[in-house]
Design goal:
The complex is a heterodimer of chains A (101) and B (259). Chain A has 101 residues and is of the alpha+beta class. Chain A contains three helices and five strands. Chain A has a single domain, classed as Ubiquitin-like (UB roll). The N and C termini of chain A lie far apart (38 Å). Chain B is α/β, with parallel strands linked by helices and 259 residues long. In chain B, strands 3-2-1-4-5-6-7-8 form an eight-stranded mixed β-sheet, sandwiched between helices. In chain B, a hairpin with a 4-residue loop joins strand 7 and strand 8. Chain B is globular and about 50 Å long. Classes of the chains: A alpha+beta (101), B alpha/beta (259).
């Protein structure tokens, strides 16, 4: 089964592309996809998707098509679906590089 | 509810090109004339929000932005000028807006949003547009807007991307429903073009105009995702978190009221 993953903002920079096609086993659910992406893109992406305990980051937004879904929802994915991943972005500003918290 | 202010002949002529917009008309213009908006930060995004609201004939703007202009602000902060480097950003913004529309009432606060000033500033206006670059400020503004049940237009940008949503406390998810915590990694100095900031600022101004005048359909319960790198605009639905620490009590009150 093939799905399309769209990466927005910092996720796009972490992966190096705005979208990619991903092959998954039949019956795969959303958490399976996110774990597979973390393995496929070591470096910054796993930090943006998962916390130190391996739990999904609470501010990760996931959309299947045009609808928001919970990242931990064991919703079976379907052939050709477009999954958009998003982390928060802010407004205008200036100044030095600072950690978010 | 206060009666809508009448328009002077000058105001009617100034707004002539928008008075004929279907569903707007003189009543919509009078609603704008009688309305007030707080803009948190008038930098890359907020400059354009303020500029467009001044052009549209908003009655009163409250601008909150601390600090002085730097050279590297000038790729996007369009209310400023090169000669103003080192001078207060908010004062320069006010000068430009007054020159552009002298009928506009302006209040300037030479500070960003803080725990100390947020309740007072939100209390002064009918609607808030948040353009702040720090998540702490944005979540603080969200908390206060929910507390005071004021509409909040929230806009953001990053590189060639931008996002916009409109929050009506008790009717839509709030910002903390979307983002209960800041992202793990966030660089305050992030990549962006001024044109991206300006585009989302203009869209945010349009959301404010629609909400205040009763025109069209605002982005309620939706998030607009703009990717100018590939020129896609996607409107996605967003959901409230039932355990949201900021707005769940409001929903419980609403449920109690309706039952």
């Amino acid at each position: 089964m093939m799905v399309v993953v769209r990466y927005m903002a910092q996720l796009r920079l972490a992966v190096g592309t705005g979208s990619e096609s991903v092959t998954l086993p039949e019956g795969a659910v959303l958490p399976d996809l996110l774990r597979q992406l973390g393995r496929a893109h070591p470096g910054l992406l796993p930090r943006l998707l998962f916390d130190a305990r391996g739990e999904l980051q609470p501010s990760l937004l996931v959309f299947v098509g045009d609808s928001q879904v919970s990242p931990s929802e064991p919703r079976p994915l379907r052939e050709g679906e477009v999954i958009t991943l998003l982390t928060p972005i802010a407004g205008g500003g200036h100044g030095a590089v600072t950690p978010a918290h | 509810m206060e009666p809508l202010p009448p328009l002077t002949e000058e105001e009617r002529e100034r707004s002539r090109w928008q008075l004929s917009v279907e569903g707007f008309g003189e009543e919509g213009q009078r609603r704008l004339r009688g309305a007030s908006v707080l803009i948190s930060r008038c930098g890359g995004v907020g400059s354009l929000v303020a500029y467009e609201l001044a052009a549209a004939g908003i009655g009163r703007l409250v601008l909150a932005h601390g600090g002085n202009l730097r050279l590297n602000d000038l790729n996007r902060q369009l209310l400023m000028s090169h000669d103003g480097i080192g001078r207060s950003r908010v004062q320069q913004a006010a000068e430009r807006l007054r020159a552009f529309n002298p009928t506009l009432t302006l209040e300037t606060i030479d500070s960003n949003i803080t725990e100390e000033n947020v309740a007072d500033l939100v209390g002064r206006v009918d609607l808030v547009v948040d353009c702040a670059p720090l998540f702490k400020e944005r979540l603080l503004m969200n908390r206060e807007a929910v507390q005071q049940r004021k509409p909040l237009v929230d806009c953001a940008m990053f590189e060639l991307e931008a996002q916009l949503t409109t929050i009506l406390p008790g009717r839509t998810p709030c910002l903390a429903c979307l983002y209960p915590l800041p992202p793990v990694v966030w660089q305050r100095e992030f990549p962006v073009f001024g044109a991206v900031a300006g585009m989302i600022g203009c869209m945010a101004a349009m959301e404010a105009i629609k909400l205040l005048s009763g025109l069209g359909n605002p982005l309620l319960g939706s998030l607009l995702l703009c990717d100018l790198r590939i020129m896609t605009f996607q409107r996605v639905t967003v959901h409230r978190r039932r355990d949201c620490p900021v707005c769940q009590t409001l929903w419980q009150k609403e449920a109690g009221t309706s039952s």
